[in-house]
Every structure is written in C-alpha cells, then in structure tokens.
Amino acid sequence: MYLWQKAALASSLLLFSVSASAAKVTDELDIGGAVRINYGWKDYDNNAKLEFELFRADVNYQSKDGIFASAQYRWYQDMDVIHHAYMGYQFDEAQSVQVGVTQVPFGFLPYAAHSFWFSAAYYLGFEDDYDAGIHYKNEQNGWRYDLAYFANDEYGNGSRYDRYSFDVATTDQSSYEESGQFNARVEREFTTGDVSHKLGASFQFSQLDFVANATNTAGEDVDSIAAAAHWQADWKKWQLQLQYMHYDYDVEDSNRIAISAFQYQSDIAAEADVAIVNIAKSFDVDWGPITQLNCYNDYSQVMSSGQGLDDSIQNVTGCAISAGKLYSYVDWIAGKNMYFVNGSGIGIDNGDTSWHSRLNINVGFYF
Questions:
Q1: Which uninterrupted H or E stretch holds 22?
Q2: pLDDT band, residue 83 (cuts 50/70/90)
Q3: How far out from the chain centre does Cα 134 lie?
Q4: Is 93 left (phi over 0), alpha (psi -120 to 50) or beta?
Q5: Phi, psi dihedrals of residue 114, rounded to the nearest 5°
Q6: How far is it, in rounded angstroms, from Cα 49 to Cα 153?
C-alpha cells in the first residue's frame, strides 16, 4: 500500500470515529494530526534535499466520568509506527492511571530538550520513550509522583527496528530485548522570588531477556539500572535546564549493547553518565504571521570509559517558530562521535570520533 493510500485510509477511519462518537456520546473527542516537510544539509555527504517527513493522526478522548484515551500513529517515508496508544481513568483532580503504550516517566517530561533533534538521552532510550505497561500519576500541592511498570517495549519484539522510541535491540552480537521495567519519578515545583523551579529525580530498573539465535546460542537474562536528577529554572522569558544521569546495562563480556529506532540499529556504551545543559529564551514578535520565537542551545554529553569506548557530544543551536498552525524548527546540529551526526553509535569508538555537523529545517502544519 502506498503512503497516500495509508493516509487516506487513516483519514477515513478518523471520520468514521467522529461520526460514531457524535451519535453515541456527548463527551470530548479531539481529532487532529500533523504534516511535516524537512530540509537537511550535512557536512559529511552531498545529499541535501527537501522532502516529506511525516504525516500523523492524533485521537484524544475525555469523558465526563473520568475515562480518557489518547493515540497517535505516524507515517514516515519508509515506515509507519505507533507513537502512543493508551486509555486511562482520572480518579480525582490529582490522581490518574494510564494503561497501554504510554510515556516512560524518566528525567525531564515531556522532553529533555527544546529542539526538533532532542538530546543525546533520546538516542539512548531515556527521553520521549514509550513502552507497553501501566502508569500511575499523582499531582498535588506542587508535587508530582509517577510510578510505572512496563511489560515490554511498544511492540514486544526487539528484532523490529522500525519504531519511534529507541529500545534495546535484538541483534546477532547483542541478543537481548526488553522484558519488565519499573520506573519511579518525583518532582517538586516551587517559586523563589521571580524564578520558578522544577526539581526532580528518577529511577529505573529493567530486565532484559536473552534471545538465542544462530550466532549466539548461550546467554543469560540481565538487569539494568538508571537514575537521574533534573532541575529547571524559569525567569521571565528565560529557561535553564540541567540534568545528570547514569545508566548501566549489566551485559556479559561486553561494554556495548544494541539499540534501534527508525529502521536502524547501532551500539551504545553499556554503561555511561549523561549530562544535559539547555538554555532557551522566548520572544513575542509581530512579523506578519510569525508571533513567537523560542531560541535555544541544547548541549548533551555521554561520558563512557573503557576499551573501544569514547565520549559522545551533541550541541543543537536553533529556534522554534510559531506562525498560526505552522510550527517550524531551524537547527544547527554539531556532534562528536554521535549517532545521526555521522557517528557509528553513542559512547563507542569504531575509529572515527571526529566532529560533524548538519543543518535541519523542519516545517510542520498541526491541525
């Protein structure tokens, strides 16, 4: 089926959903989506181009009785994937529970960056990650508490590389997949003078199942842990974000593990520390249809040590531009030994750990 046929099918299903809901209920049902195009220039190849990047469909439902649901599906040029799909119940103004493919509560939420490119934590599976499980949230008196358990990744299959979230991948050399994960997160929001703060901590414990294959027939299930502390300060139109995290996959006889998304798999350091330093400022403007700019510098560094390992650095300087229903990013990405900036992985050394850069312009229509 061609991409336009898939998009037409999705639109038909959404229209049917609206009609059915209008006939049966009077609760809130919001149907939306986005279409995005992208231009990318890289200093390490001669393949700059303007191309279709994404069509997505969003469905959000909220009943008067506290039941809610949300789903998003995405069509890219070469793959179509689930982003999230969950249902839940709002017990009261503070407490809710979600079941399904829902966001993993770890570190800054919803993102640890301001740019289209996210931070290095995303490419390690610790930012904007969605897995299949149950998530309890409690927000009251300036505190937020999250507890979650995930049975597996969103597809329950480490051999599937076409996915949005970065998850542990099953390969011939690194034959594991996610199988059971517990997350706990706490965040305190408070104000001192003219500055508002968000201060929080996260913990994650997960299990990886060994998957036997023709190349690797003997192995054992392993555990992994991750912890992070984060602080956000907002003053007038300025925002500062700091996060420090440590993760450790206890894999046997290796200091690497495989991870995958967007149809690719690569290696990352099995153990590393990650530092994130972001600063941004928003501007209200009156430039024809453009009403707001949010300009930023997002810096992240992955620190690993050991034979065949090396640090990875990503720095993104850019602006997000709001113009009605159009939302665009103009980003300059510089990376050293960094996946998607001509690096072979993250935190590893395969012989080329030099700096590379790319210009990325993404224009999206959100409806």
A1: helix 3-24
A2: very high
A3: 18
A4: alpha
A5: -110, -15
A6: 33
